[in-house]
């Protein structure tokens, strides 16, 4: 597996945010959890992702503390997944600060010119 290169001075939270938000499948899962907590089968339906893909990415999101899981005792083994909103907000804030700090402090507007 290739090693991850991180520029000098890049804050840990920014690197973590890049891992969480820099993957379209993970973004789809986080977006699906906006509707509320869900079982894995529900997330498969909400996202349209294959169960195996979804499961692997849920594991990664859990490891990064972006998603939490609770066993449903009344339902047996299934896990109920939900977004860790506090963690996601911290990551987004760190990413915005890293990317937009100079723009915000200068009061400049960002314009994207068409090519």
Automatic annotation (TrEMBL):
> InterPro entries this protein is in?
DprA_WH (IPR041614), HTH_ArsR_DNA-bd_dom (IPR001845), WH-like_DNA-bd_sf (IPR036388), WH_DNA-bd_sf (IPR036390)
Which Pfam families does the record associate with it? WHD_DprA
Q: What domain of life is recorded for the organism?
A: Bacteria
Matching entries from SMART domains are given as: HTH_ARSR (SM00418)
Stretches assigned to the HTH arsR-type domain: 16-97
Query: What is the annotated signal peptide range for this record?
Result: none
- Could you tell me what this protein is called? ArsR/SmtB family transcription factor
| Organism field | Kocuria oceani
């Amino acid at each position: 597996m290739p090693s991850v290169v991180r520029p000098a001075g890049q804050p840990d939270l920014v690197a973590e945010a890049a891992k969480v938000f820099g993957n379209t499948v993970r973004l789809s899962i986080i977006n699906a959890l906006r509707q509320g907590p869900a079982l894995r089968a529900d997330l498969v339906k909400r996202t349209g992702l294959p169960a195996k893909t979804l499961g692997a990415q849920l594991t990664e999101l859990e490891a990064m503390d972006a998603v939490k899981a609770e066993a449903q005792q009344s339902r047996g083994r299934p896990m109920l997944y939900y977004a860790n909103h506090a963690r996601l907000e911290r990551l987004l804030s760190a990413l915005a600060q890293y990317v937009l700090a100079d723009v915000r402090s200068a009061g400049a507007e960002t314009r994207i010119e068409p090519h």
